[in-house]
Amino acid sequence: xxxxxxxxxxxxxxxxxxxxxxxxxxxxxxxxxxxxxxxxxxxxxxxxxxxxxxxxxxxxxxxxxxxxxxxxxxxxxxxxxxxxxxxxxxxxxxxxxxxxxxxxxxxxxxxxxxxxxxxxxxxxxxxxxxxxxxxxxxxxxxxxxxxxxxxxxxxxxxxxxxxxxxxxxxxxxxxxxxxxxxxxxxxxxxxxxxxxxxxxxxxxxxxxxxxxxxxxxxxxxxxxxxxxxxxxxxxxxxxxxxxxxxxxxxxxxxxxxxxxxxxxxxxxxxxxxxxxxx
Length: 278
Known about the structure:
Strand order of the largest sheet: 4-3-2-1-5
Number of domains: 3
Distance between the termini: 83 Å
Helix content: 40-55%
Order of helices and strands: HHHHHEEEEHEEHEEHE
CATH class of the largest domain: Alpha Beta
CATH architecture of the largest domain: 2-Layer Sandwich
Shape: elongated
Largest sheet: 5 strands, antiparallel
């Protein structure tokens, strides 16, 4: 009985000793990794600020490099922290090599996002500051990071999209070109003299602010409905002025119709539903 008690006491002493050492190392690792997390975030912001002063460096590349530096510091600190538990970098690399297939399958989505981010950086379908549409999301590109792309929507929401989602589906860069055509549909009543109103619409559209002289504004009859004649009024402008011009063309159509003293109300509609959202 006495031997069992002594063995139990000896086992308890070993557990306490090992547990104390383990908890001490775990506390040190936690502190070190927390500091590494803070330093990695600071380094990311510092890289962005440093390169932001150099105006010739593309903002898309800046955010991608800053994100890469942050993740590199975090991975390096994680490997260093594992050495506190007796796992050296050499053995860690050997484990990764031995379990490469399993790790590759487990991190398939993450690795695909990384590869997609490199492709987006290489081929540049968009840059930081461009307005893009991907699936049901649209917004201004805030940053292209290592694994994801950050968008800011028109109503100031932050959307984070995986890079693989952007590279594997159709993507529209709304602001890729410096100029853009604005169009609205104007449903005129059948009794309106539309042929006489078309030149007036073009003349008034030409006088609007920010409208380009070339190509000139145009207005044409698109189709006939049961009670309306649908007219398409369009003009070219700088891309950033597109939403304002869409609204101005719709208001112009209503004004021309009011001046013609046609009593039936006009309800201008954008030819593209997304024109007012951009």
